Amino acid sequence: MFEESNETRNKLDEITYKIIGLAIEVHRQLGPGLLESAYQECLYYEIVNSGLSVERQKVLPIIYKDIKLDHGYRIDLLIENTIVIELKTVEAFTDVNFAQILSYLKLGNYPLGLLINFDSKILKNNIKRFINTL
């Protein structure tokens, strides 16, 4: 389980705030209507240039008892090896979107995730933050 101190929580909040600002910048430049892959590439570029470490399309296997199952699950962006970013270009979030990011947090034992929907007029209204409480 991920243990969170006040210092860790403050660091995660600081990184989250930075990521949201970068996502808003990408959305401001591109607007809605593009493919998810375009937003992912541009956000990746912004995150790299901000100085944060980022992995793109991070493979996430399932560990079941004593076997490792690689079923092609991939995290869109993993920031500082702690924050999962899942990007969407959908009309509205669904329960499946929420379950997906929660599963990634659980499987990877990551403390925090952001679900960002770029298919919106105002991006800040389409960002959801998730905390791994397991």
Low-confidence stretches: none
The main pleated sheet reads as:
5 strands, mixed
Q: Tell me the series of helices and strands, N- to C-terminal.
A: HHEEEEEHEE
The number of helices is: 3
Helix content: 40-55%
Overall body shape: globular
Residues in β-strands, percent: 25-35%
What is the residue-averaged pLDDT?
93
**What structural class do helix, strand and pairing data support?**
alpha+beta
- What is the CA-based Rg, rounded? 15 Å
Kindly state the number of beta strands: 7
The first-to-last residue Cα distance is 6 Å
Count of separate structural domains? 1
Strands, helices and their partners?
Layout: H1 6-30, H2 36-50, E1 54-59, E2 62-64, E3 67-69, E4 74-79, E5 83-88, H3 95-108, E6 112-117, E7 127-131
Parallel strand pairs: 5-6
Antiparallel strand pairs: 1-4, 2-3, 4-5, 6-7
Keywords:
134 residues, single chain, GxxExxY protein, 40% helix, 7 strands, 3 helices, GxxExxY
What does the model show?
- This protein is globular.
- It has helices spanning 6-30, 36-50, 95-108; strands at residues 54-59, 62-64, 67-69, 74-79, 83-88, 112-117, 127-131.
- Helix 3 links the parallel strand 5 (83-88) and strand 6 (112-117).
- It is of the alpha+beta class.
- Helices cover 40% and strands 26% of the residues.
- It contains three helices and seven strands; from the N terminus they run ααβββββαββ.
- The protein has one domain (6-131).
- The strands form two sheets. A five-stranded mixed β-sheet has the order 1-4-5-6-7, sandwiched between helices. Strands 2-3 form a two-stranded antiparallel ribbon.
